[in-house]
Amino acid sequence: MPHLLETVRQHAADVLARIAEQEVVPAAPLPEPASLSVQGAGLQAALDEFAARWEPVLSASAGPRYLGFVTGGVTPAALAGDWLTSTWDQNAFSSLDGAGQHLERETIGWLRSLFGLSDRQHGTFVSGATMSNTVGLAIAREWLGEQRGVSPAEHGAGSLGAVRVLSGAAHSSVPKGLSMLGLGRRAMVSVPTRPGREAVDLPALEHALAEGEADGPCIVVANAGTVNTVDFDDLRGIAALRERYPFWLHVDAAFGAFAALSPDHAHLVDGLDLADSICVDLHKWLNVPYDSAVQFTRRPDLQTSVFQNAAAYLGPLGDTPDMAHLTPENSRRLRALATWFTLRAYGRDGHREITERCIGCARALGDAVDGIPGLRLLAPVRLNVVCFTLADDPTAERLTALTEQMADEAFLTPTVLDGVPALRAAFSNWQTTETDTGRVAAALQAALHKL
């Protein structure tokens, strides 16, 4: 075992040593599927085959110029934590073997501190922002039942009747979650946003709340960092509307929560702690491995109403429910460990530096785009995403051609903003520097000339 692990360690070190300079999205063709052999080949042969067949087509998503999807990398400490997660192979779901749960709770406390949340916010690790949003909406669904004297967890979503979910620019995972929860995608009601913004228009939201007042309480999904332009809703202003209208406030802060780490941007998440539930994705800007996110809520009692799992081999709910009673999963790896390692290794200051460097890189690329003839910014660079398009004939086909021309140097993802096809460059990797930003800008300019 030590020899085999050393072999894999050396191979991984070699990969990491070259990842910053390899093709970001390789042009090599995908290998043909192979049949499963009857006889095992052994770990060394498996490693050799993986390196020969599959590594040449894998993207450098852990590298500094992979700017699609808001994808972080993996800090050295997080990588160590992830390796040890598999080494110890803990299923952190039960107090009958509870050390993993205690480590997770300690880590949740550190995250609360990182994002400026109070102890009233109870957190749990989940797989990603989609699951975090879905868990928050599931708790919101149970709250709606509480207001109407029923329990959807016991009687089904149909016991609620019609449900309204209001949002200005909800992420696509929100209607997906509504579908999974039996509330339906059509429960989503789009509220007008502010002119030229993705932030919800507060008077329009109040009008929508007043208009549906006769239907009873609803759910409001606010954004702390939208996908296209990292726009922020007025969280404190939205929360204040609860004084006149009953609603559950869920905040999608998948990567925008990290604005709290920067003194110059912390005001963007003012009021986050007022939310009834919160989504934060960790495999984005915290730079821990996929898959990892956290969800917070002020109503863990409703959370256990939804997710409790009655079985003789599980502990009772009690005052501190086991993790098996808090999320859709029973089997759950100790994904908190990678987060524990990176937070302990680098602290608040280390992660603040990563956040502020990414913001600086995004602004530098925004300035570069603004100065490149043939490109135009579609929105100000508010945090870590640059949203831009072609100055002339910005079709999806031409933008795809542009990205293909520069795929060896950088990876950007397509989007549409206000009906205009566009590209997004999202900065969240701990390794990205101004030098990388300059290379992306140069690649854009060179690709333009080939269109």
Automatic annotation (TrEMBL):
InterPro entries attached to this UniProt entry: Aromatic_deC, PyrdxlP-dep_de-COase, PyrdxlP-dep_Trfase, PyrdxlP-dep_Trfase_major, PyrdxlP-dep_Trfase_small
Family indicated by similarity: Belongs to the group II decarboxylase family.
UniProt keyword list: Decarboxylase, Lyase, Pyridoxal phosphate
Database matches in PANTHER family: GROUP II PYRIDOXAL-5-PHOSPHATE DECARBOXYLASE, MIP05841P
Pfam families documented for this protein: Pyridoxal_deC
Cofactor: pyridoxal 5'-phosphate
Protein name stated in the entry: Pyridoxal-dependent decarboxylase
Superkingdom field: Bacteria
